[in-house]
Amino acid sequence: MPTFQSRPFRPSRTTATLNRIFRAHPFAAFGLPFVGLIVIASFGLSSFTQTRYDLHESKVQSVGKEEALQMSKNRKKVDLREEYFRLQMKGDELDDWENKRVPRLPGQPEWGVGVEGIEKSREKPSL
């Protein structure tokens, strides 16, 4: 008794017709679904992009004339000499640093590859 049926599988007429159409026009099988997916996704994602633009718009607001005048009244007076000396003091702070060494792992050479590594690289690999 055979394990498999002795007669081969024969597809129906509609399956054969669809296979013939897809072989003649591969865009119908691959390109059309891809383009359709892109178009549907663009409409689906439009709400997310609109939310993004609304959030950006809420952060950036135009200032009216009255608010601008109020802001200009409360401004701090800026003196160029004072700012110059303040920046000079910060520059002096940047010069006060100290080099700290990183602790080496046990057996790690001080500089580059150790003698053992050079000897291993000179050995010819056996094939």
Outline:
This protein is mainly α and 127 residues long. It has helices at 13-24, 26-59, 65-73, 80-94, 115-122.
Could you say which structural class the secondary elements and strand pairing correspond to?
A: mainly alpha
Could you give the order of the helices and strands? HHHHH
The whole-number mean of residue pLDDT values reads: 80
Largest sheet: none
Percent range for helical residues? 55-70%
Let me know the number of strands: 0
- The value of Rg in angstroms is 38 Å
Unreliable runs: none
The shape is flat
Strand percentage:
under 5%
Number of helices: 5
Distance between the termini: 53 Å
Notes on the protein architecture:
With 127 residues, this protein is mostly helical. The protein is 61% helix and 0% strand. The longest helix has 34 residues, at 26-59. It is flat and about 95 Å long.
Task: Chart the SSEs and their pairings.
Elements: H1 13-24, H2 26-59, H3 65-73, H4 80-94, H5 115-122
Helix pairs in contact: 1-2
Task: List key phrases describing it.
single chain; 127 residues; mainly alpha; 5 helices; 61% helix; 0% strand
